[in-house]
Design goal:
elongated; four-stranded antiparallel beta sheet; single chain; membrane; alpha+beta; VPS39/TGF_beta_rcpt-assoc_1; CNH domain-containing protein; Thrombin, subunit H
Length: 751
């Protein structure tokens, strides 16, 4: 017996399939219930006569489809119509339509057999209608979907979810099969049919529900038999779904059924998912939802790209509006599915492995905020709830939660650091929220809280003025820290900021002076040294910064204190004599006065010489009632006399000054004068030599003659020189005067 390109060979009660080359084409053969006496093939079934009955099997799945009790059957032909003969009778086996067979298999929950049958038959044999192929594909998909539901109801979750995934089933349909803890608002009340499944296959059947009861399609077997009119049956066959008719008594009788006799046509409804069974079902659901999540995200991205391309393509207004509306509706549907998938996936993680909740919420997701919020609060998953709020841009709710938990004494989010780290991730567009929720952090942990505003990655994102105003209202010390960061590290040269930092330093120094004086009065001590650090920072800033207003700071200084700061400010407004007088008579620090002049001399020697002379005048002709400081003046002259005019010095020195004290000054002055005179002579001689050399070259070039003929060409423009104005290069090249600059720019070497 053969079917298609395969040949069937049987030994005892087993048949194997061989190819044209004699090798087996299948791993297993057909195991008959007895030893076949005769075999035949009728697409897509293989029929065998056994000693007690006739067996019909699906040639692809090798499943027993039907047993027919035909006594003493011996002969069997092959073809579309099968005839079986015994010594006294002949039976014809007529198959029912394939559509009826498929419907019966589905009704009996034999989905794999129905799928196998659909795969083997041609579409035209199933539906003799246009688009038969499409109808067959739709029917195949429907049956596979019902099969997946059937497997799920039998707790075969792995196979069921894998089939749903292969069919690309709507996630809503799958999620509705789970209990409310998973399905939530999408759960629908179940109305099981008699087979325990929520489906109505009659919508997909090829025949309507109102069929003729006498129609042979209502039979449950693929074959019917007709008895030879002239034969007489020996015994009445067993009542079953097939009919035998004779010429004498046309009494209907059923031969056999094509399903397993032990098969329960009305299975027990599946038990509710609980315990270990529910956990297993959820694990396979996670695999399905993860796959759907990737596909949904890809679909959303593609739709967004298409929408952007459509907006930039400039379509006609009417068509564009209609198209955009359809695309928006489609995107909304996909977005709703994405929201459901991510929300259910979070629930599944919460019930099986809550460690995966955080990674899901930290990436882009479509979780429903309200539903997930309730679940996370119930399970006290505060960290994950913060991630959810952050991903959805609900920063105020997130910071409210962090503020509440941060001020508690227990929990993973206690303390200020979670809030600080969250605020550091926000940008300029959320500055209002940052300022609002940084307040409690700055009061609780000021040093840690300042990381919100001076973290490296956030340097240029915030408005410095707004942050500074916020910090000034919180703490003066914090405003100083921020101003130092903005000015010293970021290099901001805004005058307002420099004025504020100088003013903040000054306020701090004055406050410390007041506190120190009160302590000194109580203890009888001198001014405490604790203010030295603040004053040193103030003085250093006043000396280094060039962007504050000295007059504004000077107006705030006390008249009887902070003389060094006053001297620095006076020097900035050009009052050098007053500044030097403070160093000399108020601070009694001649070294600082001298260093003041040295610093100016290094930057500007001419102005520095004037500063030395001013300092000498302060020493010798004080504006106060102080006596002249002749010794200090002589010390200054001994060190820097070379930079001071001797005539001015002699005019200011008292007549009682001893000459031996002026010896170091005269020595330095004479040496410096001789040095300058000798240097000037050298320079003079060099300039004279250069003048003579230039004069010699000038005479040489003046003595040269250039002959301009009618054929003399300009090498730049290749035109005749003629009577045009020309220029002669040292190399002897003659060009138009207008071409001279072009040649000099390109640096051509003319010969």
């Amino acid at each position: 017996m053969h079917g298609g390109s395969d040949r069937n060979l049987h030994a005892a009660d087993v048949s194997i399939f061989l190819g044209l080359d004699g090798t087996p084409t299948r791993k297993v053969g057909i195991e008959w219930t007895g030893i076949p006496e005769e075999m035949g093939y009728s697409y897509p079934y293989v029929v065998a006569i056994l000693p007690r009955h006739v067996e019909v099997r699906n040639i692809q799945t090798q499943t027993l489809v039907q047993q027919i009790e035909l006594p003493s059957a011996r002969l069997l032909n092959q073809g579309k119509l099968l005839y079986i003969a015994s010594a006294t009778q002949i039976w014809r086996l007529t198959p029912y339509s394939f559509a009826v067979q498929v419907d019966q298999l589905v009704e009996k929950n034999e989905f794999e057999e129905a799928i196998s049958l659909l795969q083997q038959i041609e579409p035209i044999l199933l539906e003799n209608k246009p688009h038969a192929t499409t109808l067959q594909e739709e029917k195949m998909r429907t049956i596979r979907d019902l099969h997946a539901h059937y497997l799920f109801q039998r707790n075969e979750f792995d196979a069921a979810l894998a089939l749903f995934q292969e069919l690309d089933t709507d996630p809503i349909e799958v999620i509705q099969m789970y209990p409310p803890a998973i399905s939530g608002r999408v759960l629908k009340p179940s109305t099981p049919s008699e087979d325990g499944l929520n489906h109505n296959y009659s919508d997909y059947a090829s025949d309507g529900p109102d069929r003729d009861p006498d129609d042979d399609r209502n039979n449950s077997n693929p074959w019917s038999t007709i008895v030879n009119p002239w034969s007489t049956p020996a015994t009445e066959p067993r009542r079953d779904s097939l009919t035998i008719t004779t010429s004498t008594n046309r009494v209907p009788s059923v031969l056999s059924t094509w399903f397993n006799p032990q098969h329960d046509p009305q299975p027990t409804p599946p038990r509710e998912l609980t315990g270990q069974v529910l956990e297993e079902a959820i694990n396979y659901l996670i695999r399905f939802l993860t796959d759907r999540r990737g596909k949904t995200a890809k679909l959303l991205y593609q739709q967004q790209q298409q929408q952007q391309a459509a907006q930039s393509s400039g379509r006609a207004l009417g068509a564009k509006a209609s198209k955009e509306k359809d695309e928006r509706e489609k995107m909304d549907r996909v977005a709703e599915v994405a929201k459901l998938v991510d929300t259910v996936l979070l629930k599944a993680y919460m019930m099986t492995n809550d460690a995966l909740v955080g990674p899901l919420l930290r990436v882009q997701n479509s979780c429903d905020v309200e539903e997930c919020e309730v679940l996370l609060l119930e399970k006290k998953k505060y960290k994950e709830l913060v991630d959810l709020y952050n991903g959805k841009g609900l920063h105020r709710k997130s910071l409210e939660l962090l503020s509440k938990l941060g001020q508690s004494n227990e929990g993973p989010l206690r303390g200020c650091m979670p809030t600080i780290m969250y605020l550091q991730r926000l940008g300029q567009e959320h500055l209002d929220i940052i300022l609002e929720y940084s307040e409690w952090v700055l009061r609780t942990a000021p040093e840690e809280g300042m990381k919100i505003f001076i973290k490296d990655a956030m340097d240029d994102q915030f408005s410095h003025a707004r942050v500074l105003a916020h910090l000034e209202a919180t703490s003066a010390d914090l405003s100083i820290i921020y101003l130092e960061h903005v000015i010293l590290e970021l290099g901001d040269e805004t005058t307002e900021f420099h004025n504020k930092l100088a003013g903040a330093y000054l306020d701090k120094v004055l406050q410390e002076m007041m506190e120190g004086s009160e302590g000194a009065e109580g203890e009888g001590n001198d001014f405490p040294s604790a203010i030295s650090e603040s004053r040193s920072r103030l003085i250093h800033f006043l000396n280094e910064s060039l962007h504050y207003w000295p007059a504004k700071i000077l107006a705030r200084l006390q008249l009887d204190g902070l003389f060094e700061e006053r001297a620095v400010l006076l020097s900035r407004i050009g009052q050098h004599e007053q500044a030097l007088a403070i160093y000399v008579f108020r601070l009694r620090n001649y070294r600082m006065a001298e260093e003041y002049c040295n610093r100016i001399f290094r930057d500007d020697p001419d102005n520095g010489r004037r500063m030395y002379l001013i300092l000498l005048r302060v020493y010798l002709k004080p504006s106060t009632k102080e006596p002249p400081l002749v010794d200090a003046a002589l010390e200054l002259l001994s060190r820097h006399g070379a930079h001071i005019d001797a005539e001015e010095v002699l005019a200011m020195l008292p007549v009682t000054t001893r000459m031996d004290g002026l010896f170091p000054f005269f020595e330095k002055y004479v040496r410096e004068t001789n040095k300058n005179r000798n240097m000037n002579l050298v320079v003079k001689n060099l300039l004279e030599a250069e003048r003579l050399q230039v004069q010699e070259q000038w005479v040489y070039y003046r003595s040269r003659a250039v002959k301009i003929t009618e054929d003399r060409m300009c090498p730049q423009c290749n035109r005749r020189i003629g009577n045009s104005v020309f220029a002669v290069f040292p190399t002897g090249a003659v060009v138009h005067y207008s071409c001279k600059e072009k040649i000099e720019k390109t640096q051509w070497k003319l010969t």
